[in-house]
Amino acid sequence: MKIEPFDIRASSLFRHSGFDIHHSTAVPIAPVFREGLAPFRKALRHWYRRHARSLPWRHSVDPYRIWISEIMLQQTTVTAVVPYFERFIERFSTVHLLAAAPEQDVLRLWEGLGYYSRARNIHRAARVVVDRHGGTFPESVEALQELPGVGRYTAGAIASFAFDRPAPIVEANTLRLYCRLLGFRGDPRTAAGQRLLWSFAEQIVPHRSPGQFNQALMELGATRCTPDAPDCPRCPVRRWCGACALNLQRQIPQAARRPAITEVTEVAVAIERDGRYLLRKRAPGERWAGLWDFVRFPVDQGDNPRRSRLEQRVADETGLGVDVGELLTQLRHGVTRYRITLRCHIARWRTGKPDSSRGEFRWVADQGLGELPLSVTGRKIAKLLESHDGKASKTVRIEPRAKKKRGRRNRETPPPGV
Ligand code: SF4
Questions:
Q1: Which atom of ligand 1 sits closest to the CA of residue 252?
Q2: How do beta strands 262-273 and 276-281 pair?
Q3: Ligand 1 contact via 238 beta carbon (within 6 Å)
Q4: In terms of Cα–Cα distance, which of 64, 70, 63, 57 is closest to 150?
Q5: pLDDT digits (tens, 9 = 90+) for 293-334
Q6: By the 8 A CB rule, do 191 and 201 touch?
Q7: How far apart are CA 127 and CA 243, in angstroms?
Q8: Strand 321-335 relative to strand 394-397: parallel, antiparallel, unpaired?
């Protein structure tokens, strides 16, 4: 749906936006359109040239680097991404090197960043770029969106940042900024809200240096127009801001409903045989697919099963007879809406071979654990095993690296199957 450039009331979306156009304090015409877009764009660009952060992916217009950074930044903070990005680019400096690498190497470099479907998609997309496009990234939004894991926002970012195409962008930071500029009080996550915001983004993106303009919008959203403390006095586009005119900065955008947290209890068992530990590769469709893990299974919430029950569960999962020993540690961690208490035991192998019909298993020596991609909790257990001396257990809390914190969240939501 097209929004009339100077009177946002013309949009039926606007009428359903929750914005009261009859209210005396309402801003009936989106202020950013009132005097034409040129002054708004000029003010934004001027601010960006003076205040843009120096980030490693901004030093180049290489679509490969831009693409890697944009995928890493999905649901993840800039601070967390920088070291991962630098290590990744050092190891896979070109799309050809990435395409030729084993998936395990890619996942090992991604380890700890979370949302591992992103790494699997990056790897698949690199192969598509090499096989279908000869290693050269396509320039159009449509062709970019055909790559695995590349949605409308990421395609627009690559097209505008790398190829200077006037492609619109809407991600977490610009979504918030647009809602405030428009004074939009409806829900921006509905289909109608999304159409409104994408339409707005299409209209404001210029043909001259659209990449720099889009980056400036994102930077403003990330550093000035923050979720909880927008710095309006120092905002370069304050005079065009509908929310500021209404003093509704803190009410706009409408907050997303947070999913209810579910408490879960799981058990991980490090089964040892002759100095090696049994690992299982997480299967496609499972949480952490492609990563290796100690034998792990859920138990009733809050349950602390007896050893005989744990031994039976291990037999069910692996086909092995084991003697479950002491509690090595207890970890607390979060995966999406689940808060997991993980009880970690050591066990000694007694009988049998791992049953390959129940998964892909491998016996791995201490030193080999460092070469395989593990989940954050798997890595924590591996480190404890290295230094384990049979002393009393302890409880360790692991904070998720890719914290979903309102306002620090960025870019598109990655596909499910974290
Ligand atoms: S004036 Fe305040 S609310 Fe409006 S865009 Fe700037 S920082 Fe955001």
A1: 3
A2: antiparallel
A3: yes
A4: 70
A5: 999 999 998 778 899 999 999 999 999 999 999 899 999 999
A6: no
A7: 45
A8: parallel
CB atoms within 10 A of CB 221: 23
Q: What share of the chain is helix, strand, coil (3-state, %, to 5)?
A: 45, 15, 40
Residue 410 near residue 73 (C-beta atoms within 8 A): yes
Cβ(9) to ligand 1 under 6 A? no
Does residue 254 form part of some domain?
no
In testing the pocket of ligand 1, which one of 51, 184, 237 has its CB within 8 Å of the most ligand atoms? 237
Give the chain's mean pLDDT.
88
Domain of residue 212 covers: 8-246
Cβ-proximal residues to 310 (8 Å cutoff; 6+ apart), any chain? 267, 269, 324, 345, 347
Output the furthest CA–CA distance in the chain (Å, rounded): 79
243 lines ligand 1 (CB under 6 A): yes
Active-site residue, selected from the candidate residues 4, 35, 70, 90: 70
Protein residue whose Cα sits closest to atom 8 of ligand 1: 225
Cβ of 174 below 6 Å from ligand 1: no
Is the distance from the beta carbon of residue 235 to the nearest atom of ligand 1 less than 6 Å? yes
pLDDT digits (tens, 9 = 90+) for 123-132: 999 999 999 9
Q: How far is the CA of 403 from the centre of ligand 1 (A)?
A: 25
Centre of ligand 1 from the C-alpha of residue 217, in Å:
11
272 counts as catalytic:
no
Q: Is 244 in the pocket of ligand 1 (CB under 6 A)?
A: yes
Going by pLDDT thresholds of 50, 70 and 90, the confidence category of residue 370 is: very high
The residue whose CA has the least distance to atom 4 of ligand 1 is: 241
Q: Say whether the peptide bond before residue 102 is cis (omega within 30 degrees of 0).
A: no
Question: Global pTM?
Answer: 0.85
* Identity at 380, one-letter amino acid code: K
On whether the CB atoms of residues 400 and 339 are closer than 8 A, the answer is no
Domain count, the chain: 2
Question: Domain end: 190, 217, 246, which one?
Answer: 246
Q: Is residue 130 part of a domain?
A: yes
Asked if 325 and 242 sit in the same domain, the reply is: no
Same domain, residue pair 42 and 172? yes
CA of 248 to the centre of ligand 1 (A): 10
